[in-house]
Amino acid sequence: MNQKVVLITGCSSGIGLALAARIAKDEKKRFMVYATMRNLSKGEALVEAAGRTLGRTLEIKQLDVCDENSIKDTSTPFGSVNAGMGMIGPIECQSIDEMKTVMDTNFFGLVRLLKEVLPDMKRRKKGHIVVISSVMGIQGILFNDVYAASKFAVEGFCESLAVQALRFNLNISLIEPGPVITEFERKVYEEGLKTDLSKADKVTADMFTNIYLKNYKQIFETLGQSSEDVAEHTHKIITMDNPPFRHQTNTLYTPMTTLKYADPNGDLPIDTFYKMVFEHDKVFNASLNFLKLLRWRSRKSFTMEKDKSN
Predict the structure, then answer these.
(1) In the β-sheet with 4-8, what is the strand arrangement from edge to edge?
(2) Measured distance CA(258)–CA(138) in Å, rounded
(3) Which of 275, 194, 20 shows the shortest CA–CA distance to 267?
(4) Which residue of 29, 35, 37, 65 has the fewest C-beta atoms within 10 A of its own C-beta?
(5) Given 147, 212, 216, 253, the catalytic residue
(6) According to the annotation, is 96 in a ligand binding site?
(7) Which helix (H) or strand (E) holds 295?
(8) What is the mean pLDDT of residues 70-85?
(9) Catalytic residue at 147?
(10) What angle do CA 267, 157, 74 make, to 5 degrees?
């Protein structure tokens, strides 16, 4: 059986690591995974996660999506792009260079890689480009202005490219997680805590510190998925005969993104989020606690059912 070649970027941690390990462990051994990362010295966690698949259905290679020379020899009929960089805080406190770095990684990193692999995929008339996007590519979130902008760029780019891709029998799929509990998110939060707020006005600084950062952990604990969960969703999309263009991985977050499509004027999601944050914060926190309880009970029930079956 001919294996499909899968190139995955950003595999040193988080979603990229989980995705590489999951696809390499595909029960039918349908894939040969080339798991890449910018710094090979950070590959220990992937080696451990890969286990016996290493050297069989998974190989680790160096790739930096911000370096064109690093991707020149990359050629695959199938791809998954995952490299990402986050940034939170008031824009007054962020430099243009910092913003450019986020865009360079999250958007232009994707563009560089596709410029290299797309011509060969077109010649073959075969392939599937899977991009790890975000619900923030659909809907902006408070104090995630630049990160959301980078994901909006990814979504617009892929939506435009998807029409052309169909002409060459190519599929493009955007995987759109909500909050994901990873080392990536922990680092973003820790960097947020270090933000120099001296350039922000008092109201904005208070909003960031006492509303956004204060609720950050609770939102992730309540709505957050694991990397393995997102990887499982992605594996299912990859193995479909007719994969969708968009796939949201977190059903708890879907009602929030649905607001975007419910009002063509765009006012509904903005007004709803404003009222949730500033007018009904007690209801918002109570809702988070309720959702957290439901998820705990659901997981406990699932565990008990598994125990009964063993």
Answers:
(1) 58-62, 31-37, 4-8, 78-81, 128-132, 171-176, 246-248
(2) 10
(3) 275
(4) 29
(5) 147
(6) no
(7) helix 281-309
(8) 66
(9) yes
(10) 150
Give yes or no for a contact between 107 and 157, defined as CB atoms under 8 angstroms apart.
yes
pLDDT > 70 fraction of the chain, expressed in percent and rounded: 86
The pLDDT value recorded for residue 282 is 64
CATH 3.40.50.720 assigned to 4-179+225-251: yes
- For the cut 80, the answer to whether the pLDDT of residue 297 exceeds it is no
Residue 59's SS3 state is strand
Distance CA 219, CA 179 (A): 8
| pTM, to two decimals | 0.86
* Contact (Cβ atoms closer than 8 angstroms) between residue 221 and residue 292: yes
Q: Strand runs (DSSP E) across the chain, as ranges?
A: 4-8, 31-37, 58-62, 78-81, 128-132, 171-176, 246-248
Q: What is the pLDDT of residues 56-73, one digit of tens each?
A: 999 999 988 888 888 876
The response to whether 203 counts as a known ligand-binding position is no
Is 24 one of the annotated binding-site residues?
yes
Alpha-carbon distance of 9 to 7, in angstroms, equals 7
Q: For the chain, which residues make up each domain, given as ranges?
A: 4-179+225-251
Q: How many Å apart are CA 76 and CA 139, to the nearest integer?
A: 32
Give the pLDDT of residue 276. 81
The answer to whether 15 is a known ligand-binding residue is yes
Tallying the residues shown for the chain, one arrives at 310
Residue type, 286: A
Instruction: Report whether 216 belongs to an annotated binding site.
Output: no
Assess contact for 248 and 257: CB atoms under 8 A.
yes
Parallel, antiparallel or unpaired: strands 4-8 and 171-176 = unpaired
